[in-house]
Design a protein that fits this description.
The complex is a heterotrimer of chains A (about 70), B (about 110) and C (about 220). Chain A has three helices and two strands. By secondary structure, chain A is α+β, with helices and mostly antiparallel strands. Chain A has two domains: about 1-30, no CATH class; about 35-65, no CATH class. Chain A is elongated, with a radius of gyration of 17 Å. In chain C, helix 5 packs across helix 6. Chain C has two domains: about 5-105, no CATH class; about 105-215, ACT domain (Alpha-Beta Plaits). The longest helix of chain C has 14 residues, at about 50-65. In chain C, strand 2 and strand 3 form a beta hairpin. The chains are: A alpha+beta (about 70), B mainly alpha (about 110), C alpha+beta (about 220). Chains B and C meet through helix 1, helix 2 and helix 3 of B and helix 4 and strand 9 of C.
Amino acid sequence: MTTPSRATAREVLDTTDSSLLDLVDNLLNRGVVISGEVMLGLAGVDLVYLRVSALLCAADRVIGERR
Amino acid sequence: MSARRPPIEVRQIESLRAELERQAGAPRWNADPEDVQRSVAQLVLTLVEFLRQLLERQAIRRMERDSLTAEETEDIGVALMRLEETVRDLAGRFGLSSEDLNLDLGPLGRLL
Amino acid sequence: MSGVYLYALLGGAPADTPGVGVCDEPLRLVDLGGPLALVGDVAAALPPSPATLTAQDALLRRLVPAVEAILPARFGTLLADDAALVEALGPRCRELAQALARVAGCEQMTLRVWGEQAAAAPEAESAGAGPGARYLAARRRARQVPEVEALRQRLGGLVRAERAERHDRPPLLATVQHLVARGESARYLAEVDAAGPALHPWRVTVTGPWLPYAFGEAA
């Protein structure tokens, strides 16, 4: 699981072609996110792998329709 | 896919790029050893903000479907309003902007 | 870090073999109990660049004639193995099946809404609504794009679904994605052209058709 640096983001966005910008928007900001994940670190050491999809499902059950 | 529409202005492109860069460039979370307290606050507030938006979306959906009573609508509205104020106040105290409360989730994407 | 790279979710098996992925790896399908995951076994996820993004989009476009329902995954989705994929998707299988049904036979047009200022939000609250109800109504308005209402009227049933997002970063005011039936994009573009003057003072640019990237989630 890689995350882009700001430099990479700039490189990808370095265009004046609005179609290419929409391509970037579609592929990097949209599309199905299978599981929200983030690696949490301290002092440069990866310590905790947090998966948000579990959080999403729980929230769904809590606030879902009750009638 | 063809861009057969008239080309959009440079200024329009620039604002679109700025918006996409804001969305796509969020960093991975790593506690700043100089200020662990601030980093932890950032993580916690980001998660709370994530949930607040989820709750807000769901509340709006139910309001639109008319599946909330007037009293429920009022109560939920007040609760969400207070939650938003609280997150903003706490973030301010740690010097965090709304953009700071935007963790990178999914392989490359933004959280909110 | 090698693993299973997810390209998209499919509503059914393609009419012919899925072909190869962006690393020239053979593509294969993983059954999620309804939806199918289109994956490839890769040595590493490629970093985003105009070339890799274009290649991934092109790969999915090639599938369109052979598959009714395709939901692209976000670029860079790499999982450890098939078991991790099934575990990650299991809880959402029903929602994903609903999303696939929603986008079956459809494609996406992307509108960007431009102007120097946002449309004034109409206050339509009934008198006597409390602060909570007013707040919720305001939050709802913040997600809407009234600037293109004239265009929506023209498009009518051409639009199967809409996703909208305000940016309020002038001149970029908002983005609207419209889900239309495959093959309707020419008609859609014609309506956008015709609606131009009616949208004044706001302007709209459009790209597409795209695969239905924005329609994986419920509204």
